Amino acid sequence: MKLVRFMAPGNPTPACGIVINDEIAELEGDIFSDPARRRGRYPLSGVSLLPPCSPTKVVAIGLNYGDHARELGFPIPDEPIIFLKPPTTIVGPGEAIVYPRSSSQVDFEAELGVVIRDRISSIKPGEAYGHILGYTCANDVTARDLQKKDGQWTRAKSFDTFCPIGPWIEKDLDPGDLLVESYLNGERKQSSRTSQLIFKIDLLVSFISGIMTLFPGDLIITGTPAGIGPMQPGDEVEVRIEGIGTLKNRVIADFGLRISD
Fold first, then answer.
1. pLDDT single digits (tens) 1-29
2. pTM above 0.90?
3. 253: helix, strand or coil
4. Contacting residues for 137 by C-beta, under 8 A, at least 6 apart
5. Which residues of 243-261 are buried (b: 16+ CB within 10 A; e: fewer)?
6. Cβ(136)–Cβ(52) under 8 Å?
7. 256: pLDDT confidence band, cut at 50, 70 and 90?
8. Which residues contact 180 (CB under 8 A, 6 or more apart)?
9. Do residues 105 and 175 both lie within one domain?
10. Domain limits at 98?
């Protein structure tokens, strides 16, 4: 079951629905509502897809594939390395990734996203899957030069538009061994499987919930495999995950005015 948030023609407010073939069946409530309670239908090609969830926070996992840790010159971690991306990084399918003027190297990072179903705190790994709504594609966009310059990751990971997600949330999925890929202008750059995750999803959800309360719609992005690389304005980047689909975004230059200008 694929859950979406979307804008329909003539409707000024976002709606939620279920993708059924090439249509969207609108739900009476939000993505957490009873899927049996539906309204009308819209052609999928006639709506604008939004980010499929609205997290209060994005909890990201660093160095969760061994090959990625090695390509950056970091040791394999003994426990999950977590950091936060603000909700303002979130954009949906087809929306632009804005290349900030303060960076000279902006990288793509294909990742599996985990969407939390309900409020949880300090749960055990064995309880984790019962609190997951579903899974989505994510791109942990990173200003790599600023990450190296700062020695910590907040600025490099937190620019507006630096976390595209979508195109929907897939509920009916076993995340244990999924193909995760990225493509830049149609050329494959990353390819691995979630079976290669150092810290598995149930452990991640449990570990994070022992640090901070997670709320419905919160997003965990689970780490990226080797093959990360730079993007330039005009490039199109895709994240493809087996069983979910394809998330496409184009990179644009930041021509906006700053207060300091």
1. 999 999 998 889 999 999 999 999 999 99
2. yes
3. strand
4. 110, 111, 112, 113, 165, 166, 167, 239, 240, 241, 244, 245, 246, 247
5. ebbebbbebeebeeeeeee
6. yes
7. low
8. 110, 111, 112, 190, 191, 192, 193, 194, 224, 225, 239, 240, 241, 242
9. yes
10. 58-253
Q: Could you tell me if 40 and 77 lie in one domain?
A: no
pLDDT (tens digit per residue) in 65-94:
988 888 888 888 999 999 999 999 999 999
Tell me how many degrees the CA angle 221-245-167 measures, rounded to the nearest 5.
65
Q: 195 pairs with which residues across the strands?
A: none
Same domain, 15 and 141: no
Is residue 212 pLDDT above 90, yes or no?
yes
Q: What is the DSSP string of 139-175?
A: E--EEHHHHHHHSSSHHHH-STT-EEEEEEEE-S--G
Q: Is residue 44 located within the same domain as residue 93?
A: no
Helix (H, G, I), strand (E, B), or coil: what is residue 83? strand
d(CA 74, CA 1) in angstroms, rounded, equals 38
Strands (E), 86-213: 90-91, 96-99, 106-108, 110-116, 132-139, 142-143, 163-170, 179-184, 187-193
pLDDT of residue 11: 86
Q: For 183-203, write each residue's pLDDT tens digit.
A: 999 999 999 999 999 999 999
Reduced to 3 states, what is the DSSP secondary structure of residue 70? helix
CA distance 85 to 90: 9
20 and 120 co-located in one domain:
no
Report how many domains make up the chain. 2
